[in-house]
Design brief:
By secondary structure, the protein is of the alpha+beta class. It is 25% helix and 21% strand. Helix 3 (157-164) packs across helix 6 (209-235) and helix 5 crosses helix 6 (209-235). The chain binds a DNA duplex (16 and 16 nucleotides) through residues 1-3, 6, 34, 58, 73-78, 95-97, 105, 122-127, 167-169, 173, 176, 178, 185-187, 245-246, 275-278.
DNA sequence: CTTGGGTCCTGTGCGC
DNA sequence: TGCGCACAGGACCCAA
């Protein structure tokens, strides 16, 4: 999936399109994504004016004038395509592939006032959409257990140390746990651990306070750099239509098995499997 | 309680 | 060129 930076980039792309506009029509082209769409999904959205576009963890939150929130998750392979009234289209932080006109996986179309439309595409259908009342949001099952945002003040070394204390599993698994910190995924966990010089296999509870103090800002830095890269791709989004949304040219370890460590330590990047997911790391720089 | 594995689904890329 | 297999950004669910 798009991880936090990609979802943030998508939100920034959607914000000026949605905000203040009426959702005139919603076309749902299949009965479900990961789960069935809620009852009366389209009807509950149609005629509503969007007041705000935001993000929590990897969820896109589109707040409506009636204080309901359209919740969108992109799963592993979701992307959003925007059709402009003049016929141009672009994909903010598009992922996975350029459909090249293949619309088989265009599952939902939001038609907005003024001729704009927003198309949700997700080949693997691990994504989801739901509608949640603003007053129910905090306690909603999707959000009740989600941990602090990594870019916010609540996520700090003291907090993380507390959460890792006593944990025996590898640090990598814990950073992927959305209840500990929201929004990290497989790529940026690998990247952050590399930047912090921490082995992905280190037992979470044994990492010293000093190293956690280094890890927290490295997580932030990796995410912020990726958001910046996404933001710059937004500026000329029309010409980058169809390009990969992950900013992989700047990954230091992810998907670089066998390549030389960029720290020039002489070691090669290794790939291992943890909890069924690939982990990339430098065996020399990360301990 | 924590932890690990299987699962949903389609598409891509590799080796043979 | 074709086929089969491994693997892919997530996260839920259940067994141990």
């Amino acid at each position: 999936m798009p991880e936090l930076p990609e979802v943030e980039t998508v939100c920034r792309g959607l914000e000026p399109i949605f905000t203040g506009r009426c959702i005139e029509r919603v076309v749902v082209r299949r009965p479900n994504l990961r789960w069935p769409f809620p009852d009366q999904f389209a009807t509950r959205l149609e005629g509503q004016i969007v007041t705000k576009v935001g993000r929590r963890a990897k969820y896109i939150l589109i707040t409506l004038g009636n204080d309901e929130i359209l919740v969108i998750h992109l799963g592993m392979s979701g992307s959003i395509l925007i059709h402009e009234p003049d016929g141009n289209s672009h994909r903010p932080a598009s992922l996975y592939y350029d459909s090249g006109g293949d619309d088989r996986h265009d599952h939902v179309v939001f038609e907005l006032e003024g001729g704009w439309s927003v198309i949700y595409n997700d080949p693997r259908r691990f994504g989801l959409m739901d509608i949640v009342s603003l007053k129910d949001f905090e306690g909603h099952r999707l959000f009740a257990k989600i941990g602090p945002e990594p870019l916010g003040n609540e996520f700090n070394p003291a907090y993380l140390s507390t959460r890792l204390n006593g944990r025996k599993g590898p640090i990598k698994s814990h950073l992927l746990d959305q209840s500990i910190v929201a929004g990290l995924g497989n790529i940026y966990v690998c990247e952050a651990l590399f930047q912090a010089g921490i082995s992905p296999q280190a037992r979470a509870g044994t990492i010293s306070g000093k190293r956690v103090e280094r890890l927290v800002p490295e997580i932030r830095a990796v995410l912020m750099a990726a958001i910046d890269a996404g933001g710059s791709s937004l500026n000329d989004y029309v010409q980058t239509d169809g390009e990969l949304g992950y900013f992989q040219h700047q990954f230091k370890v992810y998907d670089r098995e066998g390549e030389s460590c960029t720290n020039d330590c002489g070691a090669q990047i290794k790939r291992i499997v943890q909890a069924g997911r690939s982990t990339f790391y430098c065996p020399k720089c990360q301990r």
